[in-house]
Specification:
The protein has about 325 residues and is of the alpha/beta class. The chain has ten helices and 15 strands.
């Protein structure tokens, strides 16, 4: 039996994404085989394809940072009741595939009643937003926060979760995307025509409680300057090189050492490999919020799983509000 996946054999744009066919095998010991139902299309997928990441994957590779699917086969040593269970995984690579092989240890339990397409953005985009807000910044109702990059998959997760947390939000986005910020109660700032530092200093002269930065570069310095005493800056942008990573970490460390009572931190999902407990707790909370209708991921477009090239083209267009999700064909037929 055969299955298909998306392969990147050379660096470049969406046109390098090719459909490849492989033989389906049985899982190895301690491994499960998951039939992929949904895979979000994210910026790390794009950066990996271009090689703009501190540790670019060796060619060829299969992109796809996260998946949601059903376990359809297990290897030796895996509990038999895993078969048929709905699961997710933060894969980093490999998600653009009809089937993935994963260690049982990395699986995330997903309630069976949840729509896998809606669950897909929770695995990366919503966990980043939730943990930077509640674990890195420890926000409280009434806090004033700036979201740098407020209209994409992570940005709209911040908007929904920030509204739930009772934050007073300001967000950077191009003017054509301001509607979504206003919908969630955030004050929109057009980064193309407005100096956000001037706007915030006028609107919040006492300073912000938190700044969440998904872009990096000079936004680190400018965002940090807007904090009040006791405020916290949290960066989560994907650095495009090892040297950029080092510079960002040094800058954040220096800012934290300054005797001004403000702090700077950097967030990364890599910690999920070191200590899974807080991640599993927070994914469970996000699934519950989704089940209760308290969050609803904005999905701008769904594509068949093997149409990743078209999905990546849309993501790189800069026109996306919310999320793009690759979906198993049988689920698309139901919608």
């Amino acid at each position: 039996m055969k299955f298909r996946h998306i392969s990147v054999a050379k660096r470049g744009g969406p046109e390098v994404l090719q459909v490849v066919e492989n033989d389906l095998r049985l899982p190895a010991a301690g491994e499960v085989r998951v039939k992929v139902l949904a895979a979000p299309v994210s910026l790390p997928d794009v950066e990996a394809r271009y090689g703009r990441t501190p540790f670019p994957p060796k060619l060829p590779f299969v992109p796809g940072y996260a998946i949601v699917g059903d376990v359809d086969a297990i290897g030796e040593g895996v509990a038999a009741d895993r078969i048929g269970k709905r699961v997710a995984a933060l894969t980093a690579y490999g998600g653009y595939s009809e089937y993935v092989y994963l260690s049982e240890a990395v699986l995330i339990p997903v309630p069976a009643a949840i729509d896998p397409v809606k669950a897909a953005p929770l695995i990366l985009n919503y966990i980043v937003a939730y943990q930077t807000m509640h674990r890195s910044a420890n926000v409280s109702a009434g806090d004033k926060a700036l979201i740098i990059g407020a209209s994409g998959g992570i940005g709209t997760a911040f908007l929904q979760l920030g509204k739930l947390a009772g934050l007073e939000m300001y967000g950077l986005a191009s003017k054509g995307k301001h509607r979504i910020l206003v919908e969630y109660g955030a004050v929109p700032i057009d980064y193309r025509t407005q100096d956000f530092v001037e706007v915030i200093r006028k609107e919040v002269p006492e300073g912000l409680d938190a700044v969440f930065d998904g872009i990096g570069g000079d936004y680190i310095r400018r965002g940090f300057s807007l904090l009040r005493r006791g405020g916290v800056f949290v960066g989560f942008a994907n650095p495009i090189s090892l040297s950029r990573t080092f510079r960002n970490l040094v800058r954040i460390a220096l800012y934290t050492l300054l005797p001004n009572g403000r702090r700077a931190k950097y967030y990364g999902t890599g910690n999920s490999r070191l200590d899974r407990r807080p991640f599993l707790e927070d994914w469970a909370k996000l699934f519950k919020l989704l089940e209760e209708g308290k969050i609803e991921p904005i999905i701008m477009q769904k594509y068949p799983l093997m149409e990743a090239a078209q999905a990546n083209t849309l993501l790189e267009s800069g026109q996306v509000v919310g999320n793009i999700v690759l979906v198993a064909p049988e689920l698309l037929l139901k919608t």
